[in-house]
Amino acid sequence: MTSKTEMDAAKAEAFAGQMMGILNGASLAFMIAVGHETELFDKIAGLPPSTSQQIAEAAGLNERYVREWLGAMVTGRIVDYDPSAKTYVLPPEHAGALTRAAGTNNMAGFAAFLPELGKVSQQVVNSFRNGGGVPYSEYDRFQTLMRNESAQVFDATLIDVTLLLVPGLVERLKGGIEVADAGCGAGHAINLMAQAFPNSRFSGYDFSEEGIGLAMAEAQQMGLRNASFEVKDVAKLGLSGRLDLVTVFDAIHDQAHPAAVLKGIYDALKPGGDFLCVDIAASSKLEENLDNPLAPMLYTVSTMHCMTVSLAYDGDGLGTVWGEQKALQMLSEAGFSDVRVEHVEGDVFNNYYVAQKA
Hints:
Layout: H1 4-37, H2 40-45, H3 52-59, H4 63-75, E1 80-82, E2 87-89, H5 92-95, H6 108-111, H7 113-118, H8 121-130, H9 142-158, H10 169-175, E3 178-182, H11 188-196, E4 201-206, H12 209-221, E5 227-231, E6 243-249, H13 258-268, E7 269-280, H14 295-312, H15 323-334, E8 339-342, E9 350-356
Parallel strand pairs: 3-4, 3-6, 4-5, 6-7
Antiparallel strand pairs: 1-2, 7-9, 8-9
Helix pairs in contact: 3-4, 9-11, 13-15
């Protein structure tokens, strides 16, 4: 029989190995973020086996930095290396999860959030000790990163897939209806819909001045006349019975007062109006998230951004992983009596809640 001491020693040794994996993985995530932002993955994917100098020249980057970055990529088993020729190559199987050409399968963009979250780590530590939270204003690049990441999904699926989840919606959009996006961020979803359905009128509302600024700039660039944006607390929407459709994309969980937002959306809809709410696919029960492959990241992003920004405004701190059960409960409490949970092929991150005002 194995003694308790031997069992503990084995467990300690195994966990030490796990910790080394965690530290290496975290370090690689930062290097993946660098590779994404500098477009190194995109450049290497289009090259034959190349030296660090050739890769640096193709990317327009400093060779010494590229060579050190490649060291992390090779030892992290991301890039293959031929020591005899001193050449590097990105396997196509890896490129399919790291390059912009991969579209919605590109996971390198998620890594780009980590350095941004790291900037506020000491403020989050202070919040652990003193309560409160970190406001939106402290995340100077978050809206830009979120715009870049969500744009991949919207471009690939919003018009041709996501909107089809609501029966008859596309035909009504073609005819002309009133649409609002609550918590629109940089407004790319609104602008895409406004471009696709010129007879309908689209409004985007968000607390972030940076996000609204990006949204307005894009709308102007696209020459849109049926899209408008306003800096607004969506907990005070105040559009009673005026809207045919309200959308929310990954924004309910970080609101200061999500219940008020959902009730305001219900009130803003006309009878028979539709609500499409996209949010994180997870369970409200911690134990049911153990097999969720992204659960540690989701809880981390929640702690470092979504939960803390809510608490910064004396909010509820709902958190990223509020989960399907809590979402359905809150939608019901807001007035939506019949809510369907849909999924989009290729999007493993989100649930699509479809509801209609009676």
